[in-house]
From TrEMBL:
Protein name as it appears in the record: diaminopimelate decarboxylase
Keyword Amino-acid biosynthesis belongs to the record: yes
Domain Orn/DAP/Arg decarboxylase 2 N-terminal: 37-293
Organism classification: Eukaryota, Viridiplantae, Streptophyta, Embryophyta, Tracheophyta
Entry's Gene Ontology BP terms: lysine biosynthetic process via diaminopimelate
Alphabetized Gene3D superfamilies for the sequence: Alanine racemase, Lyase, Ornithine Decarboxylase, Chain A, domain 1
Amino acid sequence: RHCFSKGEDGFLYCDGVRVQDVMEGVERSPFYLYSKDQITRNVEAYKEALQGLRSVVGYAIKANNNLKILEHLRGLGCGAVLVSGNELRLALAAGFDPKRCIFNGNGKMLEDLVLAAEKEVFVNVDSEFDLENIVTAARVVGKRVPVLLRINPDVDPQVHPYVATGNKTSKFGIRNEKLQWFLDAVKTHSSEINLVGVHCHLGSTITKTKQNRLITKVDIFRDAAVLMVNFIDQIRAQGFQLEYLNIGGGLGIDYHHTGAVLPTPMDLINTVRELVLSRDLTLIIEPGRSLIANTCCLVNKVTGVKTNGTKNFIVIDGSMAELIRPSLYGAYQHIDLVSPPAADAHVATFDVVGPVCESADFLGKDRELPTPAKGTGLVVHDAGAYCMSMASTYNLKLRPPEYWVDNGSVVKIRHGEKMEDFTRFFDGL
Ligand code: LLP
């Protein structure tokens, strides 16, 4: 059961609400439309998978930072994974328990570490200088900071190089040959830092090999967990009381809508369950995409259709400013019309493009679609993760409003950005 589906009348629905009706009722286009229930179901899938384990589901806020969504996720029992002081502030505003928050990143700022130390969130140690800053932050606030060492496991996740993070020349984490240096440093600074666990993150969108073959076994999570548990054994042998294994995020979703069987949270957790139990650990996971991506569409309107040479274009009002993943990573996101085509609509192959002044501005390439009339609704699916949170105001396209379907009603969960929000930056200068 998925929140977005075609009805018998040929219209697209979100949890029983016709997307066409939503379009007609809201103030502007494009806009993001979420299913609150789908978010709940996605969290439940993780909770069910984690039964029998001590665990923290740390939602990666970078994937989507809508405050209403964060409050909902917090209400469902999630913790939060943060990569900046502002994400930490937002997590606190959303009511997340700081003791279920993890502060990550290769370039954490000292002032943000001070806030993290003050609030007693877990901090991942990423480098020598990061450790130094954490020690300084601990001294500033006079509290001992609970830390995890982010170890770079050198496992190839076989994903787009921009989102692979756990290979040996990545900018993230520490290499295992430096482990002893870090353990000694932790011992030296035992009044400032308390080593409580280890962390790794392999990369994002883990579903496929480079050859586009499906990995169905989430083997690489197990490979990484085996390595990490070895590190835990070594570290414990030196007298540290480690409790946490953090295996990061990364589970992919079915962006292609092929109906292929993809790894589920249950598959992922089952590959590491025995290891976690055998060492009496608390498992931390950091999902972003797999919690939020499939809960949302970007809803656009067709501005017009044109042909240049052999290329057909559908021009819509949405663009790379609202949704940059296709332009930035060549990512595929499924595209659909929200209403049934006219009986005589000619089916053709189109590039779906926005109005932004550059050729990178596309949402989809070579999509077979019925030729839409002006004003037809067109959705880009799976737009819940890394879409709104990566939106820009390029070409002065203001950030779109967001709505969710909650119990059959459409509720605004974020205002669209307005011209006065933009001009305010120049007030009084
Ligand atoms: N933990 C760490 C340390 C991470 O770096 C990330 C994502 C996550 C967790 C969450 O990963 P997820 O479960 O969402 O795959 N903008 C790109 C994705 C960048 C991911 C960055 N790190 C995209 O649009 O595909």
